[in-house]
Design brief:
The protein is α/β, with parallel strands linked by helices. It contains eleven helices and seven strands. The model has no long low-confidence stretch (mean pLDDT about 90).
Length: about 250
């Protein structure tokens, strides 16, 4: 049995692949964050927690935010510094933020809030946010509306012995953090990638990273063959739902 902690720290072993193959986020996401928070990102002091390789951080900075990144993994932080050398980053996590009280207008978590302990991370968010600030958490979740994506999810679940999708993560977050009044939006988007890039993205997920290279490689070889039947031209259209929760601080 792998632990939650071991999965949380597994990403640093695959930081380069993570940066190359993980999906980004649509521009409409940041419009939705501003709408639900009732304030703009431009000029705001944003702390991006669990920043990883900086996929979300770069987009926040592109909206004119003054961003500080917080990341617990040394491997991910190294890749972040390579990609975003002008954005400051500190080692830390959401359970014990290395930040002063009332120092942020936004706290953001892209694909990262579920790695925290809400009993600790919620008080930390309330401590660090300024009055009128907002906590924004979101996840890219695979949309299984198409038959091929649904079939792939079933194959992954059989291989892992469980349904590892995080499609209900936002629901659990809103239920577990009653101290915050979450507002919600869901945004659908797609991207087209090569079959190899799609398979490489699968390999960057923690459930596969903790299995070891041999077991993962066996599954991915079989999965690539299955996908080749559906996408003979080698181009995969991935569909996502971004599940967004925003909680303004009183």
């Amino acid at each position: 049995m792998t632990t939650h902690l071991s999965r949380a720290h597994s990403f640093s072993t695959a930081a380069t692949r993570y940066a190359a193959h993980r999906p980004s986020y649509p521009p409409a996401l940041f419009d939705a964050i501003e709408h639900l928070a009732g304030r703009p990102l431009a000029g705001a002091r944003v702390v991006d927690v669990g920043a990883g390789t900086g996929i979300g951080t770069a987009l926040l900075a592109g909206r004119g935010a003054d961003v500080l990144a917080v990341e617990p993994g040394s491997g991910m932080a190294q890749e972040f510094r390579r990609a975003l050398p002008r954005v400051p980053i500190v080692l830390g996590d959401g359970n014990a933020l290395p930040l002063a009280d009332g120092s942020a207008d936004f706290l953001t978590y892209a694909q990262a809030w579920h790695w925290t302990d809400p009993a600790r991370s919620v008080p930390e968010a309330l401590r660090v946010l300024r009055p009128g600030g907002a906590l924004a958490v979101w996840w890219n979740i695979r949309d299984h509306a198409t038959p091929w994506a649904d079939a792939q999810a079933a194959r992954i679940a059989r291989f892992l012995g469980r349904d590892d999708e995080a499609r209900h993560t936002a629901d659990r977050t809103s239920e577990q953090t009653t101290e915050l009044d979450f507002r919600r939006d869901r945004l659908r988007w797609t991207r087209r990638v090569t079959l190899d890039a799609h398979v490489s993205n699968l390999a960057t997920h923690s459930a596969f990273l903790v299995l070891g290279e041999d077991r993962t490689a066996t599954f991915l070889t079989e999965e690539r063959a299955e996908l080749r039947k559906v996408f003979p031209d080698g181009i995969v259209e991935e569909a996502y739902v971004v599940d967004l929760l925003v909680a303004p601080r009183p």
